[in-house]
Amino acid sequence: MVTEAEWERVQGELRFGQVFTGTVVRVPRPGAIGVFVDIGLSVGGFVDVVLLPRRRSEDWPAEGTVTDFEVWWVHSDHQQIRLKPSDPQYLCEDFADFVARFRPNWPSDIGKAVRGPRPSTP
């Protein structure tokens, strides 16, 4: 984990759809959880199982795989950058349907800051 100040700094520089070349560093339970990715920042990246191929976990990127990933969202509680694979071979087969159902604003989010203005405190 990084300090709160570092986490805020990193979030402030991220944009939805921003592409990072990353290295898969851990695949803890193929087919069940997702993959951890080093994208060269002080904060780790993670690709959730729902964005990876569902038919065969053998189609997931293996540890050591270097490929491009896009910023999908951030998980503030875990100080983690959630990513999606840029390479279609590592992306779930029904990504277009997934986006239409669960993230219909995705195309218009691309390029926007992942963190909007903080709510004002009373």
UniProtKB/TrEMBL annotation:
Entries under PROSITE patterns matching the protein: S1
InterPro entries: NA-bd_OB-fold, S1_domain
Entry-linked Gene3D superfamilies: Nucleic acid-binding proteins
Record domain S1 motif: where: 17-86
Protein name in UniProt: S1 motif domain-containing protein
Protein's organism: Streptomyces sannanensis
